[in-house]
């Protein structure tokens, strides 16, 4: 180390720390090395790798988890509740002493109190405690696994980092065994977009590892390890092979001229084909396009927004499109601007157009905004009616569903009662 310091000082020159406080206050901020400082970068990478390996060794492995389960089973506190074994605090501490140093963080009063429920003897469920330990171990393992892809070492992943993580994860997921290797890049793009759409709504180009762990997306992705995952579960999981193929297949079907991009006219056929021209114009004005056409990545954001209209991130995406005046709120002008296109579509389908004033009043009654003349994004999120408002303004089918909601409810009730009689 002394030789390294001597050579580095000779190369960079001595540090000029003239202030007296340098002798009293320890250094706590270390600037990231510049691109030309290859030696420092390598040193930092090696240090992080060693640190992560050390943290990985501190985690319980499968044999140690099995030993912990045997100890808990051996020291359970009677009586048994149904088929569930319980343990009191005294026996809990006994197990903690025998389990070893790696288990020590789990055998605390705080953990016991956290899992304590309504047992009259003041015990906790052994199974719940063991599941808690396994979940914690899994979270730490995943945190370490993700950190290996954190090139900057700052606790977040860029798009390319997450792409590499998912690409290397594919062979470990049996449910993706049937994917052609030529489709891997499209699958990775499809999977990564969900993370970035929901966890990076400000489009900073990076997501925190903590946020990835806290959301349910990683659970959904790793659910694909289950070889017996039902068809229904696969269809509802964005990361499954059928779901990814469905989304990509829709994109290919819309791309009539087969140039790999979507024009406004091609995108107009999306879903039921009832999105208004005015809304589609706004999509191509606000979203990233190439010579006026949309690529697959931009299309994925569009699909995620429309398929998850209740979510705040989707409402934020759609609100930006509805805010034609860029004022940060929707006024009567904005609502009328979009609803006129709905009225025009109704005429084309031979329907009597609904009065805008009636719809406007219904929207304001639904949302109950803080300012009676403006609708903000926060108002839409707070009301729980944001998805309905958006559907009324951008999609004839969405408006028709809202307008005929009472008839649809009655028909649904009749159908349910008919099925029960049979």
Explain what you see:
The chain has 422 residues and is mainly alpha-helical. Helices cover 60% and strands 2% of the residues. The protein has helices spanning 2-12, 21-24, 38-57, 62-74, 89-99, 109-115, 126-147, 159-169, 184-199, 209-214, 217-222, 231-236, 241-254, 264-267, 277-286, 296-307, 312-322, 332-348, 356-367, 377-383, 386-394, 396-403, 405-421, and strands at 86-87, 124-125, 156-158, 206-208. The strands form two sheets. A two-stranded antiparallel sheet has the order 1-2.
| Beta strands, count | 4
Major sheet description: 2 strands, antiparallel
The coarse silhouette is globular
Count of helical regions: 23
Instruction: Give me the Rg, rounded.
Output: 29 Å
Output mean pLDDT.
91
Q: What amount of the residues lies in strands?
A: under 5%
Please provide the ordered H/E string of secondary-structure elements: HHHHEHHEHEHHEHHHHHHHHHHHHHH
- Indicate the structural class: mainly alpha
Strand order of the largest sheet: 1-2
Give the N-to-C terminal Cα separation.
83 Å
Residue runs with pLDDT of under 50 for 5 or more positions = 413-417
- What share of residues is helical? 55-70%
What features would you highlight for this structure?
about 425 residues; two-stranded antiparallel sheet; 23 helices
In brief, what are we looking at here?
This protein has 23 helices and 4 strands. It has helices at 2-12, 21-24, 38-57, 62-74, 89-99, 109-115, 126-147, 159-169, 184-199, 209-214, 217-222, 231-236, 241-254, 264-267, 277-286, 296-307, 312-322, 332-348, 356-367, 377-383, 386-394, 396-403, 405-421, and strands spanning 86-87, 124-125, 156-158, 206-208. The protein has a two-stranded antiparallel ribbon with strand order 1-2. Strands 3-4 form a two-stranded antiparallel sheet.
């Amino acid at each position: 180390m002394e030789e390294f310091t001597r050579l580095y000082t000779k190369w960079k020159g001595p540090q000029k720390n003239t202030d007296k406080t340098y002798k009293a206050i320890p250094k706590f901020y270390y600037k990231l090395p510049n691109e030309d400082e290859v030696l420092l970068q390598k040193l930092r990478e090696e240090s992080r790798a060693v640190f992560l390996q050390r943290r990985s060794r501190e985690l319980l492995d499968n044999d140690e988890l099995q030993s912990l389960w045997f100890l808990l089973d051996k020291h359970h506190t009677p009586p048994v509740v149904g088929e569930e074994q319980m343990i009191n605090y005294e026996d809990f501490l006994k197990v903690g002493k025998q389990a070893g140093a790696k288990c020590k963080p789990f055998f605390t009063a705080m953990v016991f109190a956290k899992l304590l429920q309504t047992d009259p003897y003041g015990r906790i469920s052994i199974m719940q405690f063991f599941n808690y330990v396994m979940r914690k171990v899994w979270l730490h393992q995943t945190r370490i696994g993700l950190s290996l892809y954190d090139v900057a070492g700052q606790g977040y992943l860029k798009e390319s980092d997450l792409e590499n993580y998912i690409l290397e994860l594919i062979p470990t997921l049996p449910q993706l065994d049937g994917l052609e290797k030529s489709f891997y890049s499209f699958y990775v793009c499809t999977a990564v977009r969900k993370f970035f759409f929901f966890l990076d709504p400000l489009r900073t180009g990076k997501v925190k590892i903590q946020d990835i762990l806290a959301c349910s997306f990683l659970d959904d992705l790793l659910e694909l390890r289950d070889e017996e995952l039902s068809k229904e579960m696969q269809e509802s999981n964005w990361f499954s092979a059928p779901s990814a193929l469905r989304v990509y297949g829709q994109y290919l079907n819309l791309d009539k001229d087969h140039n790999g991009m979507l024009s406004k006219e091609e995108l107009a056929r999306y879903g039921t084909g009832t999105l208004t021209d005015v809304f589609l114009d706004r999509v191509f004005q606000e979203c990233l396009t190439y010579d006026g056409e949309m690529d697959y990545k931009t299309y994925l954001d569009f699909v995620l927004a429309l398929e998850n209209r209740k979510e705040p991130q989707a409402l934020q995406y759609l609100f930006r499109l509805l805010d034609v005046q860029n004022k940060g709120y929707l006024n009567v002008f904005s609502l009328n601007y979009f609803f006129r296109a709905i009225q025009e579509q109704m005429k084309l389908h031979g329907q009597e157009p609904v009065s805008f004033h009636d719809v406007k009043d219904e929207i304001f009654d639904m949302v109950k905004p803080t300012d009676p003349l403006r609708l903000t994004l926060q108002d839409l999120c707070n009301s729980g009616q944001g998805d309905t408002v958006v559907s009324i303004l951008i999609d004839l089918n969405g408006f028709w569903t809202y307008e005929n909601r009472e008839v649809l409810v009655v028909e649904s009730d009749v159908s349910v009662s008919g099925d029960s009689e049979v």
